Each structure stands twice: as C-alpha cells, then as structure tokens.
UniProtKB/TrEMBL annotation:
PANTHER family: 4-CARBOXYMUCONOLACTONE DECARBOXYLASE FAMILY PROTEIN (AFU_ORTHOLOGUE AFUA_6G11590), BLL7811 PROTEIN
Residue ranges annotated for the Carboxymuconolactone decarboxylase-like domain, each copy included: 27-98
Protein name according to UniProt: Carboxymuconolactone decarboxylase family protein
Superkingdom of the organism of origin: Bacteria
InterPro entries registered for this protein in UniProt: AhpD-like, AhpD_core, CMD-like
Length: 163
C-alpha cells in the first residue's frame, strides 16, 4: 500500500465483503448490451471529474487492454472538442457528466441529454448506463477519501481483489 493511502479497504474484512458485493452489482452492467467501450469511456470521464486517480488508472488500463486507442482515451476529457467519438458515445459522455455533477446543475440531467441517450440506447442499455454512472460515482467516493492513488493498477487486478 502506498504510504499516502489512508486505509486499504481490500485488506479490511468489512471492506472486502462490501467490495465483493459491489463487484457483483457492477457485473450486471458489464454483462449488459451497453457497449464495453462506452462503459470504459463513461467510467473514465466520471472519474476524471471526481479526481479519482485510482479509477482513472484502472479504466484507462482496462480500456487499452481491450483495444481502445490511445487517441480516444487521451481525448475523453475534451470529448466535446474532438471528432473521435460516435454520437451515441457523446450522448453517454454528456449523461455521465451531468449525472456526476448533480450539485452543479439545478436540473440534474437535462431533457436534451436525456433525449439524446434515449435516441441511441434501448431500455436495457439505458438502465445499464444509469446504473454504471451511479456505480462509478460510488467507486470514486470509496477511493478518493482513503487516498487510493493511481499508478499501480494492473489489468485484471480489481477482479482478483474482490474474488
């Protein structure tokens, strides 16, 4: 554990039990028809907004291992000013931002963004997207307070930690 990390949830019995159940909930989303690339991009963008180094590290490396291009990963933070994302991905990224920044916007997710999501995603994919954004924001709120730093993640490490 990094000397700056306050607490290792995976080494605590209660934290480990919670982590396994959390992983099981996320498995429902990962096995959904929401494209895997979209899942990683959305998780990466919410984690960037929340300043979660651990989750940024995890999702960048998992996406790269799954074949995501460095160009797209590098442009997630500036997706509006890039040409490398599909309209469906742009709708998902807008939804991720607005859902993550609930306290910053009086309306939460705008009607325009919601309409774009519904244009590109069916009911199951929409349920998966809503659930994914909730889960990644929860993951960020687990890692940031204990100062779980990014940089040491290895592909597949999270799955091994919660099994």
């Amino acid at each position: 554990m990094d000397t700056n990390t306050r607490f290792n949830l995976f080494e605590n019995e209660l934290g480990s039990k919670f982590g396994k159940r959390f992983a099981n909930a996320s498995l429902v989303v990962h096995q959904s028809s929401l494209p895997a690339a979209t899942q990683e991009l959305v998780s990466l963008r919410a984690s960037q907004i929340n300043g979660c180094g651990w989750c940024i590290d995890l999702h960048t490396k998992e996406a790269a291992a799954a074949g995501e291009s460095a160009v797209r990963l590098n442009l997630v933070a500036a997706w509006r000013e890039s040409t490398v994302f599909t309209e469906a991905e742009r709708a998902a990224l807008a939804f991720a931002e607005e859902s993550t920044r609930l306290a910053d916007a009086h309306q939460g997710v705008s009607d325009e963004t919601w309409a774009q999501v519904r244009e590109h995603y069916d009911d199951d994919q929409t349920a998966a997207l809503v659930s994914l954004v909730a889960l990644i924001n929860a993951a960020n709120r687990l890692a940031v307070p204990v100062r779980q730093k990014g940089g040491s993640y290895e592909v597949g490490m999270f799955a091994a930690a919660v099994n």
